[in-house]
Amino acid sequence: MLGWIKEYYRNKLIKSCQGEVATDFINLSNISSVGFVYDITSQDSITELLEIHNFLKKKGIPFKGLAVESVKNIFPREVASKGEKPRVAIPEELVRKQELSIVPFEKVSWLGAVEESVLREFFSVQSDLFISFNNTDSFTINHILLGYVKSPMRVGMVNSEQVPYSIVMEGKDKSLLPVLAYLNQIFYYLDVIKTV
Q: Per DSSP, what are the bridge partners of residue 130?
């Protein structure tokens, strides 16, 4: 019963976010900033997130990333004093990366929506290019993409009926690409796009 109620409210929230979304194609030389969203679902996600960070850092384009711990306890929790909530122990290698905003599971509602204040702060400045590293149909990521991303160029891994992308990158036979192959393809295509 609870699953049905949760799904009902999720659909209602997604429908309230949907509207006209302008998508555009922009050449790499015209991109002044990149934003991305990443779904932290396992310990391997931390390594991938660092690979993304290092790749974008080498490109020399200003960027910022929002990484959401959508599965509880990917990051360890520190024992709290009596009456206090446990503190999230985000790995030091992620904390040091100023371009990354890490959202712990505690900032995600029972529906799967990230706290409004976190999203407003992150999206106070929009980027020219926004990349989704979401390789599943995740309510949390779809809500962010539909409700907050206003970037003219959006790139996605998975073709979603709900989220309009300018480009969807797939591997051979519609398989998912590894993160670095995905990024290399994105930047290759951005470089060959002709703008009018």
A: 35, 154
The distance from CA 48 to its chain's CA centroid, rounded to whole angstroms, is 13
Q: Looking up tokens 């796009």, which residue turns up?
A: 193
Looking up tokens 């009018």 gives: 196
Looking at every residue in the chain, the average pLDDT score rounds to: 83
Q: Enter the tokens of residue 84.
A: 């206090």
Q: What does residue 123 show for φ and ψ, rounded to 5 degrees?
A: -95, 20
pTM of the model: 0.85
* Domain hosting residue 82, numbered range: 2-192
The structure tokens 């990230």 sit at: 114
Q: What's the domain count of the chain?
A: 1
In this structure, is the dihedral angle defined by the CA atoms of residues 145, 148, 150 and 151, taken in order, positive or negative? negative
User: Could you report the per-residue pLDDT of 53-87, keeping only the tens digit for each?
Assistant: 999 999 999 999 999 998 888 888 877 777 777 77
CATH number at residue 41: 3.40.50
Contact 22, 165 (CB under 8 A): no
